[in-house]
Fold this protein.
Amino acid sequence: MSFNVNRFYTRLLLLSRGTSSTAAVFQTVSVRGMLLITNFGTGVIVARSLGPLGRGEFAAIGLWPSFLATLATLGIPTALNYHTRRKPESGSQYYAASVLIMLAMGALAAVIGVAIIPLLFHGYVHSVVRTAQFFMIFAPQVLLGYIVTAHLEAVGSFRQSALIQIKINVLTLLTLLVLHFAGYVSPVSVALAYAIPNAMQILWIALRLWPGMPGSTAEVIANLRVLLDYGLRSYGADIVGTLASQLDLAVIVMFLNAAELGLYATALTLSRLLNIVQTSIVTVVFPRASSLESEARIALITRAARLSTLISMTLGALFLATIPALLPRLYGSAFIGALALMPLLVGEAVIGGLGSVLKQSLLASNRPFVVAVIEAGSVVCALSLLFLLVPRMNITGAATALLCTSVVRAAAIIAAYPLVLKRSIPRLLPDASDVAYVSVKLRRATEHRGALFGSEI
């Protein structure tokens, strides 16, 4: 028994320090698991301290810097990841050029946000509107965070990328605990507790990664052209992806009050915890798939989709079985209204995660425009359903609209395999060969060989 235990811990240690694809997946999932724990802790503190009304005001304040900044990416983070992976020797110069343009776009997003926020906040007190405008100063930092993450993941530093977010979450959790026990919790103080640690950590890492002089003006312009050539083609996907992920909150702000937004935001945050496996795998799969040949690339991604969806479905079933008892005890009885949304949002998380993994085949095959078209159609679908259902069904309508949109989006991505990639429709259900494959790759990874989702297919 002692030998087996020692062997088990030895293998975990090898996975935690390894550089293979298996190790990268293990490290990313492990770190995101830690993020899940810290996010859960901050969510409980915020919900118990603010209640549905305060939680909704906090969500409204924090929404717009991220929402508008993501609309201003120009596709640069995806392009940075793609080109750095294909041409590592130019990675630092691509990074420098990306930082410069993202800081400029972040400043533009901040100005636009300050101008339009008063037009969008209906039924919110004046202080919330002004605070939301003030928080637009964090828009450049949001874009800088995307660049830092894309660069680290492109060069294979998945552990460092994940550790940055852990540090941010731990600092946020500690700050919230101090505010809670000091009695200074409010929507504004909570928003600052999230924003300031994030900004400090991202700025510090961005400066550490800065390569020095980014080159001559001509070199910077040349690098920007390379990035924009790919980025602008994937930019549509960024825009509609952002709209698809946050459009529901924006519509709720326009139609419903802060308390209803608080219930919805809490349920949405809880359901998003299920995406830990799929988002972790996407983080590892996209950079690695970009360097593979067509057959290996698609086999890699479809296997990742099957396995991650199986895990996500299992976690979703456990989640739905336990959340009715846990939610009122952890968040308080005021949030019981969020329970009705959970089946819809859990289903949306599983199906949406499946689509997110499968679309990597299109992105890694240099077909970002196809993804943009699919995402654009999803946004049109979501927007139509939100405006149709939210006024009639309140927050249940928003959850229903999200679920329906995820189904349509996943179906369109699956259809793109035969129509665009000229490949058969991917098999979605794992079989015994997938399970055996994972077992073999895990064993080899802990012996410094192989990879769970490596180039061996």
